[in-house]
Amino acid sequence: MSQTRPMKKILVTGAVGQIGSELTLALRQRYGAENVIATGRKTQPSRELLESGPFYFIDVAKRETIEEVVRKHNIDTIFHLAAILSAAGEKNPQLAWDVNINGLYNVLEVAREHNMARVIVPSSIAVFGPETPRKNTPNETILKPRTMYGITKVAGELLGDYYFRRFGLDVRGLRYPGIISNVTLPGGGTTDYAVEIFYAAIKFKRYKCFLREDTRLPMMYMPDCIKSTIMLAEAPLERLKHHCDFNVTAMSFSAGELAAEIRKHIPDFEVTYEPDFRQQIADSWPESIDDSAAREEWGWKPDYDLPAMVRDMLEVLGRRHKEGKLGWPPEGA
Length: 333
Ligand code: SER
Hints:
single chain, alpha/beta, Rossmann fold, UDP-galactose 4-epimerase, domain 1, 2 domains, three-stranded parallel β-sheet, globular, binds serine
């Protein structure tokens, strides 16, 4: 039970999503393309994802669809990224429950029955709530979220820890902050503004933000998100005191501070603030996070702070805009 077993055949759920689309490619590079099986529910995968290795449509809420791929490819590890995020979950709490709770239960059960080496299940800052200390939020603290997403993530952390203690299944997870990236747009999150703002700055030099200017949240750039996920997955089991609930972070900023940092590169960039229902969600989450448990137990350390992240985002998206491939605003928006 305290042995770290190798990960040889990996299944990624949610592989078409914001994080999954980049994590799958990183895992394929590291573990071999044919050893990393990508899966999604309904969104069409990018050509790169499709051409770089195996891909299947599955629905994690339907256990037999997971089972089929697991058997076919002799899977020993699952990176379970499929989830309905905070804002989308408030629009459809029933779907959020089905995907996030029943989906996770199915993944854990399939992993247990197949005696898998590892399951990685991300959690989120959404596990925290209004009663949680908002600054430098500790790993061990009050978890009374107000969103369906948060409720499912707290349950997921507890369930993962239960499977480890009860069945010896090596389940690990980390509480992602808002993730900023430039490959696949996020869908249905409260922190999505911190991605949209870059596309809008480059294309229109203006952005209407759905959170207040002073809303401060913990965040992380995608390279750090990928790095933290793989670091945790590969950490020696005997060094872990926590399992499914590691705080991780890289930076914290308000919407106004992010706009100001972008303005250093695009001086005439204008932002207006029109908070919607997502403001209440953001107000229930921490401003900053204490991730010392992750640092101590598996050596976590981020590479990107706010200026470095902004510089890189603008460089990458600026280049794509010049090639006429920015893809903003997204189709159907
Ligand atoms: N980015 C997520 C959201 O906003 C937080 O985990 O829902």
